[in-house]
Amino acid sequence: MAKRTSSLPTAGVGVFRTKRDRRIGLALTLPSLALFLLFTYYPFFKNFQLALYRAAPFPTLPNKFVGPSQFFSIFSDAQFWDSVRSTVIFVGLVVPIGVFLGLLMAVAAHQRLKGIRVYRTIFSSTVVSSAAVAAVVFSTILSPVSGYLPSIGIHAPDITSSSTWAMPMVAIVSAWQFVGLAFIILTAGLQSLPDDLLEASRVDGASSWTRFWRIILPLLSPTVFFTLIVGVIYGLQSFGQIDIMIGTQNSTFTHTNVLIYAIYRFIHVSANPGMAASYSIALFFITLAVTLIQFRILEKRVHYGQ
Amino acid sequence: MASKQRRLAGRTGSYALLTLLAFIVGFPLYIIFAGSLMSLKEITSVPPSLFPMHPIWSTFRDAFVGGNLGQYLTVSFFQSGIIVVGQVLTSILAAFAFAYIQFPWKRTIFVAMLATSMIPFEVTVTANLQTVAALGWSETMQGLVVPFLATGFGIFLLRQAFLQIPKEMHEAAVIDGYSSWKFMWRVAVPLARPSIAALAVFSFLGAWNQYLWPLLETGSNKNIQTIQMGIRGVGGQVSTANVSLAAAAIAVAPLLILLVFFQKHLVRSLTAGAVK
Questions:
Q1: pLDDT digit string, tens, across residues A131-157
Q2: Which of B87, B162, B185, B150 is closest to A14 using CA atoms?
Q3: H or E stretch at A101
C-alpha cells in the first residue's frame, strides 16, 4: 500500500481510475459540493461583507456602507460584552452539570446487572428531547403556580421574570438535554477501556471510590475532554429554550441574551443584518477556538494511545 | 459468607444509585406523559399529583384541535423525511467517490467538505435567509429543507464505512467487470447498511428538532410550520399546562420510539469520532 506522506487524511483507495470513472467521481461529489458552496461557504463569507453595512433607520432606505468600523465597534460595545458574559455563564453552568451527571450515570451503569438496559435507555433518553419539548416541561415543573418546587420546599419567585433565576433556569434545561448525549459518549468511552484492567483492580479489592479516581478517570480522561468540548459547542448553539421560556417581551431577556439569541434579535426584532453578521463572525471564532483545542487534544491522544 | 453479604450490599447500593439517577433524569420525561393525562386542576394543585388519578384524554384532542398539531406533525414528517432522504443520498454519492474513485481535486474537495462541520449553521443564518429570499423560497418548504440536504458528517461517516469493506470484495468486483456505479449500489451500499441506518436516524433526530431555522424561515406561513413551532405556540403557559404537555408528548413520541428501536444506530452515530 502507498505510504501516507502527510498528516492529512487520505481521501480513499481509488479502485476505479479510468477516464470515465474520473468524470463520474467528480459528478458524484457535485450535489454535496453545490449545496455546501451555496448554503455554507457563500453565507459564511457573506457575513464579512454584510458586517460592512450599517442598517438604515427605515427598512425602505438602503443600508449604508461604513466599512469594518461596525465590526470592530462591537468590541467597545457593552451589549456585546454582556452577551459574551451571558454565554460564558450559560456554558459554564451547562457543561459541568451535564458532564458530571453524565459521568456519574455512565460509571454507575457500567456493570452487569439485571435490568441495566432499562436504566441505560432512561439515561440516554434526554438526547431525543427538543429545546421546545424541554422548555414546556420545565416551565411546568419550575412554575411557582403548579407547585412541584413548592411541594419540596423550594419557594422560588416567578423565575422567568427574576433576573437572578432566569439564567440558571434555562441553563438547567439545556444541561438536562445535554446529559443524555454526555452519557452516551462517556459510556462508549468506558466500553472501549481494557476490561482486564478494570477487572484486575476489582479483584485487588480497591474500593469503588479509589477505582474511580485512580483508574477509571485517568483512562477515560480523553473521552471526558471530548465530552466537555461537545458540551461547549452544544451550549453555544442553545437557543430554543431561551426563546420559549424567556422571550423578547420579558424584561429579563437582557440577562439571558447569549450570542446566538443576540443574533436572532438582530435579525428578527431590529432587522439589522450588519450587526447580526458581526456577532456571527465573533461566534464563529469562539467556536473555532474551541474546536482547535479539541483537535490538539485528539492529536495528543492518538500519539499516546499507540 | 461475608463476601457474599458484601456483594449483596454492593449490588443494593448500585441499584439505589441507578434508581436515584434515573429519577433525576427521567422525571421531566415522565411528567410530560403523566401531566398530559391530568386535568388542569390536578396538575396545578399544591402539592401536585405525581400520577394521573383520573386520566383524561381530552388534552390530546385539545392539542390537536386547538393547537392544530395535526398540521404541524404532517409538515414535520415531510420536512424531516426529505432531509433524511436527501442527506443519505448526497452522502452515499460523495462518500463512495472519496472511498473508491480516483478523480482530480479529490483531496481538496474532501477537505473542503469536512471543513463545513467547523462552520455552525447558526453562523450562516443571516446570509442564508437572504439567499433563500433571493431564490424566491422565503416561507416555503424548499427554503425549509434545501439548505440541509448535504452533510459533512454524513460523508465522513459513510466514507469510513465504505473503506471498511474488505479488499477482496472490490478486487472481485473489478475482475467481474463491475462498473463503479454498479459496485456502489450492488456491493458497497448493502454492506454499509448499518452506517447508513445510523446516519438516517441521526438526520431524523436533527431535522425533527430543528428550531432556529424553521422559526426564521417559515415566518408567518402557518402551513409550513413544524411541530416545534406548534409547541412554541401552545407552550409555556400554566393556564394550559396539561394541553402543552400533551403537545410535547406528541412531539417527542416519534423520537422515543426511534430511541427504543434504533438505540444501537443512534449511539453509533452520536459517538462517531468520540472513541477510536
A1: 999 999 998 888 777 667 777 776 666
A2: B162
A3: helix A78-108
Q: CB–CB of B126 and A223 under 8 A?
A: no
Query: pTM, whole model, 2 decimals?
Result: 0.90
Q: Cα separation of B111 and A235, whole Å?
A: 26
DSSP letter at B38 equals: S
Q: What per-residue confidence (pLDDT) applies to A141?
A: 85
**Is ipTM > 0.85 here?**
yes
pLDDT single digits (tens) B48-85: 788 888 888 888 988 888 888 899 999 999 999 999 99
Residue A19, CA atoms < 13 Å, CB-side half-sphere: 0
- Whether residues A33 and B113 touch (CB distance < 8 A) is answered with yes
DSSP state, residue A216 = I
Q: A11: which chain B residues are within 8 Å (Cβ-Cβ)?
A: 98, 106-107, 110
What pLDDT does residue B88 have?
A: 98
Which residues are CB-neighbours of A44 under 8 A, at least 6 positions away?
A284, B119, B123, B124, B127
Q: What fold, for A69-75+82-305?
A: MetI-like fold (1.10.3720)
Q: List, in order of start, the domains of chain B with CATH numbers.
A: 70-232+249-270 (1.10.3720.10)
CA dihedral B260, B266, B270, B276 (to 10 degrees): 110
Mention every residue, 6+ apart, whose C-beta is less than 8 A from residue A225: A294, A297
Q: Does A149 touch chain B (CB under 8 A)?
A: no
